């Protein structure tokens, strides 16, 4: 079939492909330890679910304004201000069908063919393909494991060119869990201001930080607003992945352009989900704190478990709910690369993980610890057994 060149330039999200493969195993009755999902394993909190049900019962089931209902746009601005000290007006906010949609819209209204977008590596799988679909060119900046995969302003300075339009920065990062410290974030913003490029700050994991790291938004810094596109999502923070609510906060002219695109594609995000999102942002943050406490325990356990297996090295993630260990020392002997390793782990030990190749980082595997402690223990046991068998076979 003859398809448009722009669709042939991109691929189905590799993380979704791993989930699909793991599902096929599960459908055959196989007990898979699934470290694949990039979504919380907790149910959506009750107050949010009740608001969704009430929205249906009260017949909030019609089209809404494309940019979202007015109370929700206001609530997003107020919540963001309370959490991070930003000062956005509702006219600078657009509600979208998840954070991914907000990123897609922002990139598509800013990029001309051949424009460049800076993307730190390892990256979330969708960033390069969204840029390519918009006709842009991803320019990669490799972050170093010795820096804990944290981007540095000096690295940005080195690669900005005349066609650079946007730097996409995702902190806490999927897949590495890296958190850019506020002072470095400010230095990165200064580079973006000086070189006149947008800083697209993907804050989807903002509230999942550990150790010394704290939730932070560059949009809270004085003078930042005119240069920053803030992308947020209720998916991870409130365990609402399926509801599909995210947002962008940006200068009004940019929001208006995104609105135009959204009005000709999805129209408004689901009305019911918007009412649920309103309850989430206006309600207590207890459920977020409870999830964080549980993730913190799991993070400790999985990190210790990984490090106990000879040959695996693992940087300490400061945020999100992933660990991103390196397996270079364990490759060879029939395991060519980490795509191969992921395949063999699924086939032989029924462990589902996403290979680092999907994130531009061969040699690594991403393990999501958005799964129970019991499953983490089982997975670590199987992982240890896999490499024991592999070394015995040598
Ligand atoms: C880094 C990052 N940004 C954005 C998203 C988008 O999430 P959603 O579209 O569910 O809001 C994800 C989801 O996995 C993500 O990992």
Describe the protein's architecture and organization.
- With 394 residues, this protein is of the alpha/beta class.
- It is 42% helix and 13% strand.
- The protein is built from 14 helices and 12 strands.
- The strands form 3 sheets. A 7-stranded mixed beta sheet has the order 2-8-7-6-5-3-4, sandwiched between helices. The protein has a 3-stranded antiparallel beta sheet with strand order 9-12-11.
- The longest helix is centred in the C-terminal third of the chain and has 22 residues, at 286-307.
- The radius of gyration is 21 Å and the shape is globular.
- The structure holds pyridoxal-5'-phosphate.
Short description:
The protein is of the alpha/beta class and 394 residues long. It contains 14 helices and twelve strands.
Give the N-terminus to C-terminus distance in angstroms.
47 Å
Helical run tally: 14
Total beta strands: 12
Helix/strand structural class: alpha/beta
Amount of beta strand: 5-15%
Strand neighbour order, sheet with most strands:
2-8-7-6-5-3-4
Helix coverage percent:
40-55%
Order of helices and strands: HHEHHEHEHEHEHEEHEHHHEHEEEH
The low-confidence runs, each spanning 5 or more residues with pLDDT under 50, are none
Bound molecules: pyridoxal-5'-phosphate
Radius of gyration: 21 Å
Characterize the largest beta sheet: strand count, sense, and whether it forms a barrel.
7 strands, mixed
Mean pLDDT: 95
Write down the overall geometry: globular
SSE inventory with pairings:
Blueprint (H helix, E strand, L loop, with lengths): L4 H4 L5 H14 L5 E2 L11 H12 L12 H15 L8 E4 L2 H12 L5 E6 L4 H8 L3 E6 L10 H7 L4 E7 L11 H13 L3 E5 L25 E6 H4 L8 E4 L2 H12 L7 H12 L3 H22 L14 E2 L14 H12 L1 E2 L1 E2 L9 E4 L4 H20 L2
Parallel strand pairs: 1-10, 3-4, 3-5, 5-6, 6-7
Antiparallel strand pairs: 2-8, 7-8, 9-12, 11-12
Helix pairs in contact: 3-11, 4-11, 5-6, 5-10, 7-8, 12-14
The structure holds pyridoxal-5'-phosphate.
